[in-house]
Q: What sequence folds into this?
């Protein structure tokens, strides 16, 4: 795919922004100024002031001699980078690769994007029209190289879409400043009578290098396409991303669903071909008014099942507000992992954690109630029952120890044992009665004791003697006495769990 680049020049970037914030400035000449060595010097001028001879670098006192009614506003430090950052993020709707070109420009890598808008002419004109509707004076150009596009956007007069491999012919009539040269190099070229690029483009490179330096040759080669120029996007480009622009703004949930299904089908087909699965995805809707609507999903294991992924997104589609309409949809796979096909058993059904149906069910539940409300626990290497389990960090985490299965354990274990009142014979007989939360329970069956010692490397204390008991209503409980029975002093019983 041939490379194509777009450069955008915001000729009056800062003054346009002030005009948008203060409508009273519309229609009057004004400038931005900052103090330099005790004098106010103009740092930016709007189109009306510039038309009357006011330029950047002019002292405010001299400018007011030309225009007595000139409005002077204090410059805001750091305003230009902030504006370019915001505009670059807005322009991601046209290409995933947008870079800032200080102090007043943007650079797009538009390779493979123009056909989505019906061709390069519609693509470029659409960008210019939208940015002008936001209130900015803009010029834009498209070419095979950044250097040629930059030159045409600043100095070109006609044909702002340069044809493939036509860089040299587009640059010939332009001034040396179109090559983004240093000011002293431009002055030297002017003194030598080299006022257009065609005056020196055919000279021997060795002579140009000796007179103007290697940086001069580099800029010329970049513009002609002999040397590659790399841009740095404001947002990292996701390797798995699909885009869907709309001919007409989408305002209905049905339209959003259709767009999402198309993007998922395309993305999942690509993932399947590469034996990869999606773990996290972001669906972004770019509205006509410049705002963005986003919904995201996550899965417990990598998958390229588009139907399952659509069901996860479908739960959240109702939160998208299309307002005046959505003009672009972008689906990004933010986290992708390799898919390892599970070996199926011929005579047994899929079960356990390897069951795809289980993981998809958990994904849907997480979408409805939140992933933080779903937990899986595994055995931990501790004797104390409340420490013998821990929360798994993910669905496939393996336990480092076996579950204790030689003795019964309650279905519901209290994280903190609750004290109870017990009537029990001595010394190691199970209790006959106990009172829990004000209710008296008569025990008809009991098993025990099971002694569990404390872990000396964690804490010092008494052992526990556990009993499995059943009351007259058929309910079963897990009780323990703390320490040895001693008639000379009190001892404590606790409720630690429920069997059913």
A:
């Amino acid at each position: 795919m041939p490379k194509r680049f777009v450069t955008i020049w915001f000729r009056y970037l800062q003054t346009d922004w002030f005009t948008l914030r203060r409508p009273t400035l519309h229609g009057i000449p004004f400038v931005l100024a900052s103090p330099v060595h005790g004098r106010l010097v103009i740092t930016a001028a709007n189109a009306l002031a510039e038309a009357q001879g006011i330029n950047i670098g002019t002292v405010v006192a001299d400018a007011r001699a030309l225009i007595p009614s000139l409005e002077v506003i204090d410059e805001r430090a750091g305003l230009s980078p902030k504006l370019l950052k915001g505009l670059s993020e807005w322009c991601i709707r046209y290409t995933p690769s947008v870079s800032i070109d200080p102090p007043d420009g943007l650079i797009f890598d538009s390779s493979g994007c123009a056909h989505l808008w019906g061709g390069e002419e519609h693509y470029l004109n659409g960008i210019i029209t939208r940015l002008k509707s936001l209130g900015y004076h803009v010029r834009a150009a498209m070419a095979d190289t950044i250097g040629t596009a930059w030159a045409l956007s600043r100095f070109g007069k006609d044909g702002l879409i340069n044809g493939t491999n036509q860089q040299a012919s587009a640059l010939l009539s332009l001034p040396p400043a179109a090559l983004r040269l240093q000011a002293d190099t431009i002055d030297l070229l002017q003194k030598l009578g080299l006022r257009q690029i065609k005056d020196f483009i055919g000279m021997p490179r060795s002579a140009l290098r000796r007179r103007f330096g290697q940086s001069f040759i580099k800029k010329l080669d970049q513009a002609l396409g002999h040397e590659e120029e790399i841009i740095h996007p404001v947002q990292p480009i996701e390797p798995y991303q699909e885009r869907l622009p709309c001919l007409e703004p989408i305002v209905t949930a049905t339209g959003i669903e259709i767009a999402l299904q198309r993007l998922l089908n395309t993305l999942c087909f690509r993932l399947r071909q590469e034996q990869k699965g999606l773990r996290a995805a972001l669906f972004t809707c770019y509205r006509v008014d410049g705002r963005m609507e986003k919904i995201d999903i996550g899965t417990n294991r990598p998958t390229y099942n588009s139907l399952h992924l659509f069901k996860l997104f479908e739960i959240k589609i109702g939160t998208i507000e299309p307002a005046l309409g959505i003009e672009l949809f972008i689906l990004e796979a933010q986290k992708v992992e390799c898919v390892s096909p599970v070996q199926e058993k011929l005579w047994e059904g899929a079960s356990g954690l390897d069951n795809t149906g289980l993981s998809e069910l958990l994904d849907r539940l997480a979408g409805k109630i939140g992933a933080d409300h779903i937990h899986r626990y595994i055995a931990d290497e501790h004797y104390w029952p409340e420490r013998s389990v821990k929360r798994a960090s993910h669905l496939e985490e393996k336990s480092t120890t076996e579950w204790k299965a030689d003795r019964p354990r309650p279905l519901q274990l209290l994280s903190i044992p609750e004290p109870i009142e017990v009537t029990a014979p001595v010394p190691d007989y199970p209790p006959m009665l106990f009172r829990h939360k004000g209710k008296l329970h008569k025990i008809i069956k009991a098993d025990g004791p099971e002694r569990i010692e404390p872990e000396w490397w964690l804490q010092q204390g008494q052992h526990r003697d556990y009993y499995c008991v059943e009351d007259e209503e058929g309910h079963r409980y897990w009780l323990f006495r703390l320490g040895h029975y001693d008639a000379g002093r009190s001892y404590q019983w606790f409720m630690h769990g429920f069997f059913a």
